[in-house]
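Quick check before the chapter quiz. The format below is the same one you will see on the exam, so make sure you can read both the input and the output lines.
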Amino acid sequence: MCDPITPVKVGHAVPDFELTTYDPVARGFSKFSLAEAKKAKKWTILFFYPADFTFV
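Here is the expected output.
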């Protein structure tokens, strides 16, 4: 599990993590694991938008 205090910086490896996701095609929830995606050699794009819940 990822340490929530460890900052992730551009150019550094992302620590392994697992989270619950929703798949609208399957209409259900499942788990995503970065370690499993790496093992399966799947492409993964991570993006963050910290201003998501700010008031405008």
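If your answer matched, good. The mean pLDDT is 80.
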